[in-house]
Amino acid sequence: MEAYETNMDALYQEIILDHYRNPHGRGLRDPYEAEVHHVNPTCGDEITLRVHLDGDRVADVSYAAEGCSISQASASVLNDLVIGRTVDEAMGLLDDFTELMQGRGKVVPDDDPRRDRLEDGIAFAGVAQFPARIKCALLSWMAWKDATAQAFTDHSTSDQGENE
Fold it and tell me: Which class in CATH covers the domain with range 2-155?
């Protein structure tokens, strides 16, 4: 059983490294409704992230990031998971990923009910055992949440202006 766990840990580390080496969605793109810049002051990771919505669907997430492999890989996984989903579905994935990060490393990825929903995101389960790295993994997700909220606020404000 221990050899299996070691092999799975290595597989999940490889998934994270693959997203770091081959990031999905990297590079800031137009059009977008909101752009935010977030910094993790404990380690210096930073991300500028743009959100483009098409109604209630996430049409695009683009970003420019600097930092550790965990923060950059997490941004790549975020991109894969939320594009094409409704904002509500994507917010549910944010909740799932946040819960995973709060698992203190005790989550067994193969047994976790979020595994299918989080896809490659489940690879970050082991990161949760390192408190200093949790913020790295959550940086892009928090930026996405803020940008999406800003996009909705700006959209509803412009809609109100049109109705007056």
Answer: alpha beta
